[in-house]
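task queued by scheduler; priority normal; single chain, no ligands, no partner chains; default sampling; output format set to structure tokens
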Amino acid sequence: MKPASSLPVAAAKPWSEACERNRAPILAVLARWFADRRRVLEVGSGTGQHAVAFAAALPHLVWQPSDLAENLPGIEAWRADAGLANLLAPLALDVNAGGWPACAFDAAFSANTAHILSAPEVVRMFARVAAALEPGGLFALYGPFNYGGRYTAESNERFDAVLRARDPASGIRDFEWVAATACAAGFDLHADEAMPANNRLVGWRLARPAPAIPNDRGQMP
């Protein structure tokens, strides 16, 4: 768990048009779901745009961004430019590695990660988020999902084909499989809300103690 405080600030901030398009509808839901929360762990902060936007709009929250080590300089560039007291230096976190904080947050958020990670990595993400949350913690997961084994739109089907051509282990996940994965990690479904562009924001509440983290074969160590 390495903060980015010692990392050089990137010369230019990374940019995602998708982050700009989806931040307002995501924020509208998080403002309700996280109204009584205090500390949020963002898993896979990407460019850092969501972290800055949500920390600025929800000043009652301490927002902790995180991502793979190679993405931290870009996140730190956004954080340094924003100068928000409630936005912490990003942590280097990987679902395939240890070093995650334990019981340190009462909420977590992740956008567009479940379809990028492999299925075993999604399992590990839920398990690691569960271990990082306090009992009753809320995990908000944004992205596209299939329901009943079917795409919700032709655009999602095309997107899934692009994902699998790039990496056969990635792809849009079936909601039912994600729900079972979340349940195995100790979560109950909190809410499932429609978002623009055929995406969803799904909330999971930690109801049971987090299990051990499964290894790359899906087995418990």
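post-processing summary
- The chain has six helices and ten strands.
- Residues 4-11, 217-221 have pLDDT under 50 and may be disordered.
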